[in-house]
Write a structure and sequence with these properties.
single chain, 336 residues, 14 helices, 0% strand
């Protein structure tokens, strides 16, 4: 508990600087990108400003803020094992991107390790590490065994599935959740156990929805994560939108099913699902920190809020630079 008390105090002091409705409205209503960018000074980004920083550098400033937040949490908690639930998802993204470069694009190295290049610097694996593991075939003890096993089997997976890279992604997702399961089992935190179950149910719900609404086919069993509250056997007969909507009443996301409408397009319903899942996750985290002082919930929820803030800030600044009017910005934000 002592590991979290100090860093949680620092986090609580920073929460007032998070993006709120008032600040967001001012950014959206700003007449120029420069005017919108001034709001950044009121947030957690003022320390990164100097005479060389310009509004066009907004993406770099936002990313630096996320990196500093990660650094604060890692150093303040001695990188508590439970926080790997946060960092490993960025590693999974980076592994997928690096393997795509190698096997789909024929690259021999990572030429652009940046957000624009499809990578994130918020995980544990940096560019050098990824190049050694993916392109040079080296073994690094920092990479969890289950993930390393998928990297080593990538060629075999592609050969088995007619070079369909999505099966490599499925295998990495399975390895990711299996790794998290090991971490959670070793933890004494009830929150992490509840969080893990929520994450599994959420991704299974999302994958099934995408399969039914977009692909219009039953879910491939390779995508089903087996650590949740719903068994794969219970969803194998779901093949239509009607089947899916009826099934939702049996899940923790039953309220989402009530929002769906068969008269709407499949795309519109899927947007509803994605937005509602994100809202449910945020609600879960918000409730988890109530009354807490020295627990892992606080840095966990704070980092997730910083990520959400970053997405909103990037979009609004991008919109301002492309002269998108306020009304259109608000319409798009309704889907965030």
């Amino acid at each position: 508990m002592s590991n979290f008390l100090f860093v949680n105090g620092q986090i609580r002091a920073q929460e007032s600087k998070l993006l709120n409705v008032n600040r967001l409205d001012r950014m959206i209503g700003a007449k120029t990108p420069e005017e919108a960018f001034r709001v950044f000074v009121e947030l957690q980004y003022s320390e990164y400003f100097d005479d060389n920083i310009e509004p066009k550098d907004f993406a770099k400033v936002i990313q630096q803020g996320l990196k500093e937040t990660r650094k604060l949490i890692v150093s303040g908690t001695e990188n508590a094992p439970g926080l790997q639930i946060l960092w490993l998802r960025f590693d999974i993204n980076n592994l997928k991107r690096a393997l795509k470069l190698k096997y789909l694009e024929g690259k021999t190295s990572i030429e652009d390790f940046s957000e624009e290049g499809g990578f994130s610097d918020l995980g544990n694996l940096n560019q050098k590490f990824l190049e050694e593991v993916v392109f040079e075939g080296k073994t690094r003890k920092e990479l969890p065994d289950l993930l390393k096993n998928v990297v080593d089997r990538t060629e075999a997976i592609l050969a088995e599935h007619d070079k369909a890279f999505r099966f490599v992604e499925y295998a990495l997702d399975q390895a990711y959740f299996a790794t998290l399961n090991i971490i959670v089992k070793k933890s004494i935190s009830p929150f992490l156990k509840e969080l893990f179950a929520f994450m599994v149910d959420r991704i299974n719900f999302r994958n099934l929805a995408r399969s039914i609404f977009i692909l219009e086919e039953p879910l491939v069993d390779a995508t089903w994560i087996g650590f949740g509250n719903v068994a794969f056997t219970s969803i194998q007969e779901i093949k239509t939108v009607q089947n899916f909507i009826a099934w939702t009443s049996q899940t923790r996301f039953s309220e989402i099913g009530k929002e769906l409408d068969e008269t709407l397009s499949k795309e519109e319903n899927l947007v509803k699902i994605e937005k509602s899942l994100d809202a449910a996750y945020q609600k879960f985290l918000d409730q988890s920190v109530l009354g807490e002082i020295g627990s892992i919930q606080i840095p966990f929820a704070y980092f997730e809020r910083r990520l959400r803030n970053a997405r909103l800030l990037r979009f609004v600044m991008f919109a301002k630079f492309h002269d998108i009017n306020s009304e259109e910005i608000y319409k798009t934000l309704a889907h965030f």
